[in-house]
């Protein structure tokens, strides 16, 4: 006689499947990073995971939030950001080194996802001072009376630094956020005009003075992600900062560019 109590429960089976999906996605992301200049195709990644391409795309999206092709494109743009700031390479060389077919397609893609052109991205570090953060904070004060998303950003006690909070339609910080705000540290936040839909995402930067840390964040970056569809109480939002995990998409939007972006006028 078989004891029913020894059989796996549906919740346990679902958790095991979820963990298996995440492991496959982690392995695929490691492969993408290792061969970024000559990336594998989706069928090749699926073959490595020993599943069909259709099933691989479905599982990857379930584990990560975006399709594998979109994740790979984000990794290439992330690497381009690093090359632009850390090397003297010409934009044209970086473009073809990463496998883009033309300078125009690379510039268009980069500008769309990062919110500034490759040339302008390099210039963002020139003349930056922490005063730029204070100016942004001052600009935000006039919007506090408007409706929007309100909550609290929490972080480890060892963290100290500015926190960028943005509302994005997808689970990847790319393009201009729908709405956003800047904090000089963890604490209460208000995003005027923000609606309780999409993904609330935060980046904690452990430096007030190094402009490059806002553009290509280092190992001390902290992130927070909250799908607002999972929010239990829209009036008491809590967003916790943590170290990036292996499945977190790259931070593509140039945070320093957000400092100079005009705020949308929220409705009363």
What is the number of beta strands?
Answer: 7
Order of helices and strands: HHHHHHHHEEEEEHEEH
- How much is the radius of gyration in Å? 20 Å
**Basic shape:** globular
Q: What percentage of the residues does DSSP assign to strands (E)?
A: 5-15%
Taking the sheet with the most strands, its summary is: 4 strands, antiparallel
The chain-level structural class is alpha+beta
SS field, number of helical segments:
10
Poorly predicted sequence stretches spanning 5 or more consecutive residues: none
User: What is the helix content?
Assistant: 40-55%
The strand order across the widest sheet is 3-2-5-6
Overall pLDDT score: 88
How far apart are the first and last residues' alpha carbons, in Å?
Answer: 67 Å
**Count of discrete domains:** 2
Short description, anyone?
The chain is an alpha+beta fold and 268 residues long.
For this entry, give a set of tags.
single chain; 268 residues; alpha+beta; Arc Repressor Mutant, subunit A; 4-stranded antiparallel beta sheet; 3-stranded mixed beta sheet; 10 helices
What does this structure look like?
The protein has ten helices and seven strands. Helix content is 40%, strand content 15%. It has 268 residues and is of the alpha+beta class. The chain has two domains: 4-123, Homeodomain-like (Arc Repressor Mutant, subunit A); 131-259, no CATH class. The longest helix has 25 residues, at 10-34.
């Amino acid at each position: 006689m078989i004891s029913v109590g020894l059989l796996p429960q549906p919740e346990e089976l679902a958790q095991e499947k979820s963990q298996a999906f995440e492991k496959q996605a982690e392995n695929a992301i490691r492969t993408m990073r290792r061969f970024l200049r000559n990336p594998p195709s989706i069928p090749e990644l699926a073959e490595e995971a020993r599943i069909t391409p259709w099933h691989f795309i479905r599982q990857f999206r379930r584990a990560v939030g975006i399709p594998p092709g979109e994740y790979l494109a984000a990794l290439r743009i992330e690497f381009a950001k690093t090359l632009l700031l850390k090397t003297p390479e010409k934009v044209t060389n970086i473009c073809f080194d990463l496998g883009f077919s033309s300078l125009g397609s690379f510039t268009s893609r980069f500008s769309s996802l990062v919110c500034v052109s490759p040339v302008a991205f390099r210039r963002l570090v020139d003349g930056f001072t922490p005063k730029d953060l204070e100016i942004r904070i001052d600009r935000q004060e006039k919007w506090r009376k408007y409706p929007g998303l309100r909550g609290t950003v929490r972080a480890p006690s060892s963290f100290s630094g500015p926190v960028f909070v943005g509302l994005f339609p997808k689970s990847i910080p790319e393009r201009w956020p729908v709405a956003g705000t800047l904090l000089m540290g963890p604490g209460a936040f208000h995003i005027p005009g923000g609606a309780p839909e999409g993904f609330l995402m935060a980046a904690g930067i452990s430096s007030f003075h190094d402009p490059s840390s806002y553009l290509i964040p280092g190992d001390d970056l902290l992130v927070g992600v909250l799908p607002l569809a999972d929010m239990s109480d829209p009036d008491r939002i809590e967003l916790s900062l943590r170290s990036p995990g292996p499945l977190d998409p790259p931070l593509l939007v140039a945070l320093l560019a957000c400092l100079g972006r005009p705020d949308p006028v929220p409705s009363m």
